[in-house]
Design brief:
This protein is an alpha/beta fold and about 180 residues long. The chain has a single domain, classed as Rossmann fold, CATH 3.40.50. Strands 3-2-4-1-5-6 form a six-stranded mixed sheet. Helix 2 links the parallel strand 2 and strand 3. Helix 1 packs across helix 2. The longest helix has 17 residues. The mean pLDDT is about 95. Bound molecules: 2-phosphoglyceric acid (2PG). 2-phosphoglyceric acid binds next to helix 5. InterPro entries: His_Pase_superF_clade-1, His_PPase_superfam, PGM_Phosphatase. GO terms for molecular function: phosphoglycerate mutase activity. It is an enzyme of class 5 (isomerase). Keywords: Isomerase.
């Protein structure tokens, strides 16, 4: 069995890829670090979205455990459109219901799942890796988790917190997910 800790980043000051964590977010990043220390489990790899808020969220734990943070573009947040959109929540809901739906310059849910899944697949196929932390974003996280729990749709995305942690207990025959964060 493998354990994939899927982390949504801590509170951030905006949605730009360079938006930093807020002061509260920085405190949350230390709580995340405490959480993983208490798990008392050897983490083989930390992989993060290239967005600053994701990297900053796991930095305290990476420093404490003397681990490297591997940056992977495939964990970037999904782009809904290349134009600013006022009703992005409705667009997001539509895209959960229709995985082929995409606005001009945007990525469909299907394409987002496909590219982020290649990260999970490379973990699943590597016998030397057992426990991994992935740090990413709400939308991509909800789409990936939907594959393990069909109820994980738009409503569950709305319930996600900053930060949040879902554990994927991966087995070749059956995999389960559980929410580990209840701050
Ligand atoms: O809420 C989300 O799903 C996304 C929106 O793009 O952002 P975040 O990086 O805050 O998780």
């Amino acid at each position: 069995m493998k354990k994939i800790y899927f982390v949504r980043h801590c509170s951030a000051d905006g949605q730009h890829k360079d938006s930093p964590l807020t002061t509260i977010g920085m405190r949350q990043a230390h709580l995340l670090s405490n959480f993983f220390s208490k798990e008392n489990i050897a983490i083989d790899k930390i992989i993060s979205s290239p967005y600053l808020r994701a990297i900053e969220s796991i930095k305290p734990f990476a420093t404490k455990s003397s681990s490297e943070i591997e940056i992977d573009d495939r964990l970037s947040e999904r782009i809904l459109s290349d134009e600013p959109i006022d009703d992005w929540i409705e667009v997001l809901e539509q895209s959960f219901n229709d995985h082929n739906f995409a606005l001009p310059g945007g990525e469909s849910a299907k394409d987002a799942i496909q590219r982020a899944n290649t990260v999970l697949e490379s973990i699943y196929s590597d016998d030397n890796i057992k426990n991994v932390i992935i740090v990413s974003h709400g939308n991509i996280m909800a789409l990936l988790l939907q594959q393990y729990d069909g109820n994980f749709g738009f409503e569950k995305w709305k319930e996600l917190q900053n930060p949040d942690i879902y554990l994927i207990n991966y087995n070749t025959d059956t995999s389960t997910i559980e929410c580990l964060w209840n701050a």
